[in-house]
Amino acid sequence: AQTVTQSQPEMSVQEAETVTLSCTYDTSESDYYLFWYKQPPSRQMILVIRQEAYKQQNATENRFSVNFQKAAKSFSLKISDSQLGDAAMYFCAYRGDNNDMRFGAGTRLTVKP
Amino acid sequence: GAGVSQSPSNKVTEKGKDVELRCDPISGHTALYWYRQSLGQGLEFLIYFQGNSAPDKSGLPSDRFSAERTGGSVSTLTIQRTQQEDSAVYLCASSPWDSDYNEQFFGPGTRLTVL
Question: Average of pLDDT values for A50-69?
Answer without folding.
Answer: 92
